[in-house]
Amino acid sequence: MAKTTIKHFWRFLVMLGLFALGASSCVKDELPNSECDIEKIIIHYPTPDSLFYRLSDSIIIVPPANNEIKIEVRPDADFSLMRIEYILTDGATFNNISEYKSDEIKIRTTSEDGKWNRIYTISFSVPDESFTIEKRIFEFNFEDHRLDDGGKYSIWLNNDDVDYWASGNPGFKLSKSTAKPDEYPTIVDENGYDGDAVALVTRSTGLFGEMVGMPIAAGNLFVGSFDVSQALKDAMAATLFGKPFMYRPMRIKFMAKYKPGDKYKRKSTEVSGMVDYPDMYAVLYKNTDADGNSVTLRGDDGKTNPNIVARAFLSETEAKKISADKWTEINIPFEYLEEIDETRLENRGYSFAMVFTSSFAGGEFSGAVGSTFTIDEVRLICNEDE
Known about the structure:
This protein has 6 helices and 29 strands. The chain folds into 2 domains: 30-126, Immunoglobulin-like; 128-386, BT2081, beta-jelly-roll domain (Jelly Rolls, Sandwich). Helix content is 12%, strand content 36%. By secondary structure, it is mainly β. It has helices spanning 3-23, 169-175, 206-211, 235-238, 316-319, 342-346, and strands spanning 38-44, 59-61, 68-72, 83-88, 93-96, 104-110, 117-125, 137-140, 145-147, 154-156, 165-166, 186-189, 197-201, 203-204, 216-217, 220-226, 239-241, 243-245, 251-259, 264-266, 269-270, 279-286, 297-298, 308-313, 328-333, 335-336, 350-357, 366-368, 372-381.
């Protein structure tokens, strides 16, 4: 985060602190917490390497919008040997609805004030082991979507997997909690190339965003997760890119439209003559370091992390050719930076990330409010002959 952003953020925290001091004489005791989220799951097992492909998979960060948590394990897992530890929001409690001795567990969480409940479903599955398949095309049509549990913003599923696609919508909710679903940065467009599409729109974050040095929110959609607890402290740390992948990506195809907003701003300063354009990239990367520690790409190193082994970038030239009025087909081949390690591939040691955003410098809180990048019919092709 830039120094100016940090300065504004800490100034905002100081303001909040002064307000709290002023109010302390009127409130004797802190009110009970009304949240009842699972923030993290830690799985304990006698021999973790026989349960997980990577030891780091034993710790799962749970996005706040998710009630369904899917965990991939090796075949022949003995669920009776498993012990699950839940890290909850302050004061929240939980009770089991079902036992651990199956591949699906249900628990109910209750807020500290006793007024709110959530039911979580935690399921365990063995991933597709056919990583040697010669032809594989992954299709993303964006027809499967719903509102989050609060009914505030849209989330997208992939084959019933609510954890696959993520966006910055939960972070936008912090700045504009009264926004309607179609006023968020990442929304459903019912006039897609075929059925529904995803529209990524650069939005103003209002007075709150200005105060913390984050005046805009670029619409985005990515494979990974969004950690809303980091959204104000370190925006780049909030976007976590990638899911374990067992294939060799060769190219990305998708249909797109783009209309830039009227006034481009670098932070809060208008830049005369600057025209916004979209960004898209996909990478395959090693998801552990030399010591076996987990590696997850973030918003600040999604294109530059040294663990990246293959990449496909939408160039600025191609981005500026995308029409606002008709669908443009995009076709981007992957460039491989090093050879694939077959053993690592088999053991899910690579992760795949794909990122779309409505403003190319949105991660720096720069762009034109109203810039709209609409995407549909995304194809990830893992076959040299396609």
